[in-house]
Structure prediction request, 825 residues.
Amino acid sequence: MSDTRQADERPLLCVEDLAVSFPIASKSDAKDNTHFQTRVRAVNGVNMTVYPRQTLAVVGESGCGKSVSAMSTLQLVPTPPGRYESGRILWDGYETRGPVDLLTYDDRQMREIRGNHIAMIFQEPMTSLNPVYTIGEQIMEAVLLHQNVTRQQAVEIAAKALADVGIADALGRMKEYPHQMSGGMRQRIMIAMALACQPKLLLADEPTTALDVTIQAQILELLRELQAEHNMAIMLITHDLGVVAENADVVAVMYAGRVVEYGSVHDVFGDPLHPYTHGLFKSMPVLGQSHDRLTVIEGQVPNLAADALEYAIDRKGQPTDQQVQANPTLADVVMRDGHAVRVFRPSPEEQPHLLEVKPKHWVAVYDEDGTQHGESTRPDVLYRRAEAGEAAAAAPA
Amino acid sequence: MTDRLDKSPKQETQAAPAPPVDAPRTLLRRVVGATIANHGARIGLAWLAVLLFFSVFAPFLASSHPIAMKDTATGEWSSPLIDHLEVGDVTILISFILGVALWPIKQVKPAIRAWAWLGATLVVFLIANATVSPPAVVVYDEYRTREHAGEIANVWRAPIPYSPKDRLRDRQLEDSTKLDPPVWKGGEYNHLLGQTQFNEDVASRMIHASRIALAVGIIATGIAGFIGVIIGGLMGYFSGAVDLIGMRLVEVFEFIPQLFLLLMFVAFFPGDNPEILPGLPVPRIYMIMVIIGLTSWSGYARFIRAEFLKLRKQDFVAAAEALGLPLRSILFRHMLPNGLTPVIVRASFGVAGAILSEAVLSFLGLGLIEDPSWGQMLNQAARGAEFVWWIAIFPGLAIFLTVLAYNLIGEALRDAIDPYVARRTGGD
Prediction:
């Protein structure tokens, strides 16, 4: 692939039609002597694009496939039981060659990417550090692995990384153990560890969920600073809309394994189009407004497993009308022979697909009565609020 | 790849002005330091050091052959003791010297030093096997008789001038049933801990038997722990099909009756040095140790598997994976130290158990026949027509102390690996 656009304007990471499935039940049918396994797609046709120095926020309730999408990028989903059903993850972080599909990489090639080009920080800083090693050893291990440096240089790189995340007396702290640090400190250390090798993309899987509110603000502020300093893209996974509003350039709203709405933070927050996005906003309390009860999104994220199981038991028949009415968002199941079987189709023909309903604003829609609304496209928004702000500031002058 | 290469010089130039600092201590050094700081472990290690000293220098400490002597007829000096050294004696001695020499070379990584030492020991063994040839027939009273006859003079003897199998045939006096008690009970001062009913010297046998005691612990538990950790670790980390197959293997090995396997082995390979393969005689006692090791790894595998099943779900393992660390590092650097505690505790009991197993076998007459081991000496004590307390009490005490020493060290190691406890006991 040759792309004459500037590196800045080429997507760093494109997730195309990614689907990841997990087995939920294994059943032998004695009558027709078949053994079939039901698999459920935790991620089902996800598309997203990350540009360099951009922050993409992936929002949604628990269990909607945010983390699995991020883990898939580094092939951290254990296979088996997980399985990559379809899709490509195009990585364009190499300076000397064009995009490569990370899903085709073997384990050895992935280890080159992990921690070195794409780093990840996790939700739970209390348990993400190995309790038996000092934090210095843990940061240095990644540095020594990915960079061609001596132990002495690795010490210095690690100390600098710790200083970068605002830890005083970095050299002294390097000799301490994780249990001697507070939660906020540990998350800083996790960030230092992730950034020590200067990755181009940071996957932050709910980095502030386990922290109290003041520390949350500090950590997000730190991430913003480091992003500018290191020219790094961030995929920020969160369910906190406040965090999204303050940090994201582009927002992907996910529901039940699919992206249902995608656009710049202004478009999505200013003009939410999908009913689920509306629901998310409605369930946020507004300061100064009194509520008897907060608005809730009725029901739960469809239990992908339970529905698929029910179908597997009676797999010859179509789901009953009752089942459909009880849960209008029944998930897809895949039979063992590889054929996808739809449990319930809101429309007779198609899955929901992402349509660019407004310029640079995508929403998942179903085709009603078999009529195509338009071509489904991969969402792709090149927007950075920092630069937009600069441009806006520069324009009047 | 390429952009990784051009990343590093940038780092180097950045890092250059920073003053040099000490790298943090490695886990191994910290654990060793904390273990040595523990008083119980010091006692245990001291006892093991005594055993090690006895094991290495046994032929020089207790032997019927003079260290040096002069032939009165020719005036030539000679050393029958060195002439009588066997392949094992020579290998252990040179291996020990190599170990002491390699220990202080700090420039080389400890793991590389350890492998170099093992390799060198193997080479020494092969060379010794080809070159060392002690006299086939050993006459223990030869030099005593010759000294008595005035054929040799200026005889320098070992501190305990009796070999473990020297039955003092030249001194079978009129009252051969009377045994020398330990020296403080009025025995002859040469027999420090008394005599066995075959007139052998108890102290000499004890010293030579310490080799067996050390070797049983190290070989049997080492083999069992090594196999157990590898198989258990793979089972726990991969789970699924690997776990299923591994657990069946564990179950198969748990059903092998160790004692009957050993009985069968002894029946097939009689004698102290049976030929395992044609032309390859191996001391039976070492084969017994290997069999104990090969049949007792299943417990370690179960422990490690359980720990790894728990650990693989931990965030720091996912974090290590996300950093791109190789499987070897994740399994053995990040998961193993966190899951090793129960294995170490078990291993300390395992060593004790292996020593007791050997003692049981020897007691039943299935271990060593002529050569001494502590269990064999207990057997000797029980077999005698008349119970002689000093034949039983010293080997019994030695077994007790060794088992205790391993337990003390195991306890200290457990505390040292746990960083919460290590802080309190001063292990950095």
About this structure: The radius of gyration of chain A is 23 Å. The longest helix of chain A spans residues 213-230. The first strand of chain A starts at residue 13 and ends at 29. DSSP finds 13 helices and 14 strands in chain A.
